[in-house]
Design goal:
The structure holds two protein chains of two kinds. Chain A is built from three helices and five strands. Chain A is an alpha+beta fold. Chain B is of the alpha+beta class. In chain B, the strands form four sheets. A five-stranded mixed sheet of chain B has the order 1-2-8-5-3. A three-stranded antiparallel sheet of chain B has the order 4-12-9. In chain B, strands 6-7 form a two-stranded antiparallel sheet. Classes of the chains: A alpha+beta, B alpha+beta.
Amino acid sequence: MVKIVFIDHGGAQRTVNAKVGGSVMQAAVSNGVPGIDADCGGSCSCATCHVFVNEAWRSVVGEVNPTEDAMLSMSADRKENSRLSCQIKVTEELDGFIVTTPEFQY
Amino acid sequence: MSESEIVSRSRQSKWSMVGKDPNTMLLADVDLSHPGIWQANEFLPFLDRLRREEPVHYCRDSAVGPYWSVLKYKDIMQVDTSPHIYSSEPTIGIVDTIAEFNLPSFISMDPPKHDAQRLVVQGVVAPANLKNLEPLIRQRVCTILDALPAGEEIDWVQHVSIELTTQMLATLFDFPFEDRYKLTHWSDVATAISGGGIVQSQAERWSAIEECLAYFTRLWNERIKLPPASDLVSMLAHGAATRHMSPMEYLGNIILLIVGGNDTTRNSISGGVLALNENPAEYAKLRSDVSVIPNMVSEIIRWQTPLAYMRRTAKVDTVLRDKHIKAGDKVVMWYASGNRDEEVIPRANEFWIDRPNARQHLSFGFGLHRCMGNRLAEMQLRIVWEEIMQRFHHIEVVGEPERIYSSFVKGYSKLPVVIHRS
């Protein structure tokens, strides 16, 4: 288990325990973190688990993959640090990982 | 082959499916594209059997030619998320586009053109904009519901489902409110099969489509001179990716948005009333706890599946399960089947308003073409049910619903009800 911090649009912070090997999206959904819809259940095909990665962590989680890039391109509020949380795998290195959730999931 | 020829062919006994026994007929002869089995509400046993026995099925002979059917949830997901293998071009309907009826729109485009055009208009249905629309939608829902007579038979489709979705469309297009019934007519015509009851001929359809183009061209010309606004016509007229569209492309996108925002929500509004009547225990559950409404809305959209399928065309030779699909083959994803796949959705043929994971259904599709208006649709349905439960104890279905003659638009032309107030 590692800790992941979700900060919502209003600034409220929630720290959850995430299972190594799962996805950041799964950690959010199984801990009832609001603001992550994950309609497709983790198949990178709905863009409703959008998060903004804290700057300090961007190099740790790596780059968006091509499918993710295509899905994110349909998000009006996409930023440089946008990711789909179903595509971020939880590893030991991610202990303390911080993301912000957008106001709305499209 | 013209469309009226297709219709007359599909009515011929050779291609007729109505009345056939789904459990004994030859698998090779099953033709899900036949509108008759959808209108007669006989499709479910065919879907169930194909999922069990031949989940990727080839129909080699039908009124619309040969095509593949994809029946399982996970296979549909795979096809829908592989646009490099399964193209949305040239069309997403099972009937090949007829040259003289070629209306391009982003639903039948692949990236990158699809992405650029869709981005222009999706802002109008983005959640931030919906929040602004919610009070107006609620007010219009209340006005419609308050005007309904109690204790006498009315047609729910005409009085509520059509009226409400038409008003919403007029709002999104900033379309002259007094002319809003034209939108419903154009939507019906665009998806109608000639001879199916709405239009009798291709010429009749074209004259309606031309009227639609003329009307929207006038709106475009008015709005291009005004500063950019948040209605769909203004967005198209001012958007960098859409301002130089050809008239046919403009019309194609307008019709896409009309149909997308009309038939689908309309039939889900009707379908919810029917589903609750067929499942009185669920209706009782709803009465005892209206907080279930958002979840019920997803369940209604799954149960109804207002668009039964989307078609793709294989770009390359490929393999799905054990089937070899050739480049150029039609591949039809039957959402109406995937939504009943017990491997992913437990008790899938049951209507279950507090179903866990109700959001995970295929009705909106997945991948790049996932329904743009899904949040608007959910919001409309949520408001409708919140306001219905404020007012009515029971919307009682008092006669057989009439269903649409289409394998694409899965819906109702009539639903007789009597309203019992609280």
